[in-house]
Amino acid sequence: MLLDEAWLGTLLLHIEVSPVSRLVEETIGTTSVFAPPAHSGPRVDWGDAPGVTTFYGREWELNLLTSWVVEERCRVVSVLGLGGIGKSALATRVMHWVAERFEVVIWRSLRDTPACETLLDECLQVLAPQALRDVSVSLERRLGLLLEYLRNMRILLVLDNLEAILEEGQGTGHMRAGYEGYARLLLRLAETEHQSCLLLTSREKPSDLVPLEGSRALVRALRLARLDADSCKHLLAEKDVAGNPLALKIVAQTIVDLFEGQIAPFLEQGEVVFGGVRELLDQQYARLADLERTLLCWLAIIREH
What's domain 12-223's superfamily in CATH? Predict the structure, then answer.
């Protein structure tokens, strides 16, 4: 039996709209943007997510992160570790595993240090194809819009390389000057009730999240250790090797290119820190605090004696 259109129209006119929904209408138009998506799978914007063709080990970490994101519905999940340890690859793997449990999946890298307002605009454009009409909308209003989507939809937002916007060489986990907006973003997503998840990777833990983390809290952090020997054998085809995945790949490629895949002649050269490995270590050293650098220098001196 069809509803009376005149009666239905009168009823809809008396339905109260939330303040944030009014804000959405004022900013991006009167079109209803919170209607459930009419599609069978998630709406995905991979952005510049890395292509992971091979993935070794990390089964325990993969299962743990999947449990945090899907079953326990954590609001913010951090994957931490040294450069090249496999944070981005693991986050990508998790993203593909759990994508079907979300309505929208967005991946963004912070390697090029975009302003917080720029990042929010990109996310809002994915969530609502209508462009923001008022380019002068404040950071807080943008955050309010994003949070409204996070409450009304199940969204997975992945932010890779968060360390790019943290102070370098301090080891404090504080945001760089001019990027304080990201601290507001992390706090709002961690403290506000919503049904979505922020998955981030970083070489350092952002200090703003430390007080909110806990084994029973909805803010969690996982620090990656080195790969186990079995996984490393797939990278170097040698038993009892364990280390940094990216460093192993760099060394393995050099062995193939210069020594026709033979490990023994490579080891006879003596110098095993070179090229991309040296650059990888330089990047990690640049992020150390002064005290950490001093300790490394003394350890190097003691080792020589």
Answer: P-loop containing nucleotide triphosphate hydrolases (3.40.50.300)
